[in-house]
Amino acid sequence: MGQLGWEGRFGGLVAQLDGAFGSDGTFAHDRLRFVDFVDDVEDLLEEVARQEKGDKKAADGFEEYVLRHFAGHSG
């Protein structure tokens, strides 16, 4: 994410997300449980939504959607 140039605008977000991935870009399951990562990402997205739109509710449902998607459920 730092390579996308987001570190200036969302520095804390970039640092937290980059720490969840190995040098090859794959999720580092040995460092963090995926469900904890998704929960953290939803929290970070709520903060971004608050900063950008003034309303953190724009990110509501992210965690449920991702976990359902990766569990093979639609919806």
TrEMBL record:
<dbReference type="InterPro" id="IPR051990">
    <property type="entry name" value="CCPG1/PBIP1"/>
</dbReference>
<protein>
    <submittedName>
        <fullName>PBIP1 protein</fullName>
    </submittedName>
</protein>
<keyword id="KW-0175">Coiled coil</keyword>
<dbReference type="GO" id="GO:0016020">
    <property type="term" value="C:membrane"/>
</dbReference>
